Amino acid sequence: MPNANHIDFVVWHMARNEDQEIHDAQRTIEVWQCDVWYQKLGLPAADDGFGYTVEQVANLPRFNMADCMAYYEAVRLATLRYLDGLTPEDLERCPDPERHPGYTIGRMLIHLIVEESQHLGQVAYLRGMQRGLEYTTSWPSARTPFPA
Questions:
Q1: Are the beta carbons of 41 and 71 closer than 8 angstroms?
Q2: Global pTM?
Q3: Are 20 and 13 in contact (CB under 8 A)?
Q4: Taking the chain (148 residues) in consecutive chunks of 10 residues, what is each chunk's mean pLDDT?
Q5: In whole angstroms, what is the distance from residue 21 CA to residue 147 CA?
Q6: Which residues, including other chains, have CB under 8 Å from residue 14's CB and lie 6 or more apart?
Q7: Three-class SS of residue 68?
């Protein structure tokens, strides 16, 4: 699929999206900025991949995937700390009513879950296209062929 987003891009975009959403909700600086991950990955400080064209994705600077996953792990740790402190009342709070009226913490979390689920599906699809049918799935069943 020559015009498909590549896996590195999708994973980076997922991490950036989670980082932005969680820190927007808290009105704090993103892990991306705070820990200068943009420098570590050699990517623009203000970018997140949203709305990228095929050319922008194709010309995204190559980065070390282990570094990208370390960034994602740092984002997830920040997310889990945030979630641990939430109360049921927090879910109804709208952190930025001027810019995003009605966009509550609860709605943000729902959006984040859907967004990441869709992107994980894209990664799984791309991996399947790259590997072919001879590889097993992540969830074996009685019908899943296993290599000898």
A1: yes
A2: 0.83
A3: no
A4: 78 94 94 95 87 83 91 97 96 93 95 94 86 62 55
A5: 41
A6: 72, 115, 116, 119, 120
A7: helix
